Amino acid sequence: MKLIQITDFHLQETPDTFHNGVDPEVRFNAVLAAIREEHADCDLLLMTGDLAHHGYESAYQRIEMATRHLAKQRCWLPGNHDDASKMQRFTELAQQRLIMAPWDILLLDSTSQPDGVGSGSLADAELERLANFLQAPKAPFQMVALHHPPLPVGSRWQDEIRLGNSTEFLSIVERYASNALKLVVCGHLHQAHELALAEAQLISTPATAAQFVSFQATPQIELRGDASLPAYRWFELDSNGCFKSAVERVPLV
After folding, report:
1. Which residues, at least 6 apart from 7, have a Cβ–Cβ distance to it below 8 Å?
2. Is the pTM of this model over 0.85?
3. Residue 177 CA: distances (Å) to CA of 30, 46, 62, 134
4. Phi, psi of 187, deg, nearest 5
């Protein structure tokens, strides 16, 4: 199965508005064009939050239209900049769990208890969903997706706004996860990271919007070469539980 992850679009109310010194709409559309060209065999398009910068319904409408026919299935989950209630109105995209045999994929909403500066948590109901998912797999291999990373990544400012109840998340994973859990994917960081999480891997993907420099005490927009470009990540999820993955940067004309 081929899965494409795109994340952190930060689309504005109107498509001609800049954010962090870049045109997020142009970058988003460039990424979609690259996916359409290179991955016509995409089975699942996964969008992992901060899709609209201030929860604009107009942005969600543009995303829904722009991603049609890009994959056999599409789904999204909210980030701290999103309005989860508006996203739920798009029922085709607002999935909570997908069975794509032999993979079982859980989507979590980490926007509970926002701190106003970027963090968010999993509500008790989401923690319960995670525990139930891990205890009762519906396919041999499992993947979890959420917006906020549950592990630190070495940037002080970003580690301060990671998943607010990461201790509870990790406790559930350590208690209930079996060898079935292979992969946890997130957004939020505007960077690529690959970290060990129990017996699984935690993987983040750069934004389609502006990127952040890694390993910094304070936010710094990435301006250097390819690292500044919009990006997406592809996954090949194999039938034996293994997977391959890579980040692709998209040049801007």
Report:
1. 47, 48, 49, 50, 79, 147, 187, 188, 205, 206, 207, 208
2. yes
3. 38, 22, 37, 5
4. -120, -135
The predicted-structure confidence for 200-222, as pLDDT tens digits, reads as follows 999 999 999 999 999 999 999 99
By CB neighbour count within 10 A (0-12 exposed, 13-18 middle, 19+ buried), where does 198 fall? Answer: middle
Pull the structure tokens for residue 218: 């304070």
Tell me whether strands 141-145 and 103-107 are parallel, antiparallel or unpaired. parallel
* CATH, range 2-249: 3.60.21.10
Residue entry with tokens 């519906």: 138
Q: Where are the alpha helices (DSSP H) in 9-77?
A: 24-38, 57-66
Q: How far apart are the first and last CA of the chain?
A: 31
Structural domain spans, the chain: 2-249
Which helix (H) or strand (E) segment holds residue 218: the answer is none
Cβ atoms of 159 and 171 closer than 8 Å: no
The answer to whether 240 and 252 have CB atoms below 8 angstroms apart is: no
Calculate the dihedral angle through the C-alpha atoms of 35, 38, 44, 45, rounding to the nearest 10 degrees. -10
What is d(CA 108, CA 16) in angstroms, rounded to the nearest whole number?
A: 31
pLDDT in tens, 63-122: 999 999 999 999 999 999 999 999 999 999 999 999 999 999 999 999 999 999 999 999
